[in-house]
Each structure stands twice: as C-alpha cells, then as structure tokens.
Amino acid sequence: MIVGRRDLIAGGVAGGATLLAGCDRVIEHPAARRILFMGEDMQRGLQRALVDRNALAPEFTPEQRSPFFRPNGTRDPGTPEYDALREGRFAEWRLQVDGLVARPLSLALTDLAAFPQRAQITRHDCVEGWSAIAKWQGPKLGDVLKAAGMRDGARYIVFTCADMYGGAPYYESIDLVDAFHPQTILAWALNDRFLPVMNGAPCRLRVERQLGYKHAKYLMRATAVASLAGIGKGRGGYWEDNVDYDWYAGI
Q1: What is the pTM of this model?
Q2: Which stretches make up the Oxidoreductase molybdopterin-binding domain (predicted)?
Q3: Is 251 within a domain?
C-alpha cells in the first residue's frame, strides 16, 4: 500500500509509527577500509570496480518486517526551530534543493507527496551492529533532482539536517550514482505511518546500498556541489570528518 497525498494532508505528520528492530552484526573489512581512504578519485574508481553500484538492495515481504525499529543517531533535534516545526505538525517545514541546479526548490511535505511515490521494504544495517527491516515511502531523490535541473559539474548531493553536532547542523553526502539509484528516496513514511521524531521526522534520506549513518535524518537542505572540499573538513560527512568513518559505506 502506498500512502496517498490526501492522507498526508488530512493526517498530519505528528502520528507515531509501528516501530521495528532486529540484530545482525555488520561485517567490517579493515583492509578494504584502508584502501578506500587513499584519495577521492581512487576511492571512486575502487567503488566502481569492486561494487555494482546499480544493483538493487534486497527487498522483503510485509511479514518479514521487524517488530521494532530503533533510532540511530539523534532521537530528537531539540532545537527551538525544530520544536516550532513539530508543534505546527511540520506544516511550515520546507526542504530546500539548491546549489548547482537550474531551478532551486522549496518543497513542503505535500509537494514531496505529489511526486510519484516509491514504497520499499528494506533492511537497515547500522554501524553499531544492529539491523532491522522496515517499509519506507517517499519520492525518488532522482525525480526531485530532475525537477530542480542538475547543472553540469554537479557531482555530489550534500544534505544538511536539523539536528546539531558540536554546535553545527549535521551533514552527510552521496554521489550522483547513489542519488539517482532507484531505491534512494526521501522518506516521509515508515510502515505506512508518518515518520516519528526519533526516526527522522518529517523526512529522511534512504540510500539502501549503504550503512545507516549515510541515511541522514531531519532533512532541511539538499545541495548539489562539484566537490566535497568545502564541506566540513572535506571528507563529506560529520562522522567521516570526525570519527574516520568511510565516506562510501556500501553493503
């Protein structure tokens, strides 16, 4: 079942969700991690050579969903700005799509629901060592980027979020291969209910071929850029910059 735009308008986004969880160990490959840190260009080349980036992540049946979906990362941004958006049932929330685009966009939840919707039941693998299966719904990120009109030179999409780390907004990035992957969506629904706050309300990224820390929550902005050099410390994401996580967390 795909939740309709009318349901979004009528239901609001303050509703909870049927939550999930499960527990698998995420396998790490230290040698591969070292190789993937050997420069951006070599990193991309190795990714293409070792991993089929166009392959689909496995999808599951409704019966295979986990009974509880635990939050990863921030549980509640807790800022005055976010609290005001939540108090207003996110009616004033907008996702800004900007940077190297021909037509910058400012999208409300109803605008996201007006795009063709994709619903998918996939497994979330967290770097902390747990996993869970859930159903997500939202427009394909690629469709939104097409509506904005990507300019020549754009190579990455940088996501800026409402939660704060070290006094600055959380940020993450993916390249255009993942941005236009058919399973990469801007999810506003979890298990046929609006996203709860702890899972990233009102909208989060789902990039199903990567580990959970790449699935940025509390999205506020998606910016097309030519390089990651000016983003944070240049590694492309908060955890990459500060905890030496891999920029490409493919699974």
Answers
A1: 0.83
A2: 91-223
A3: no
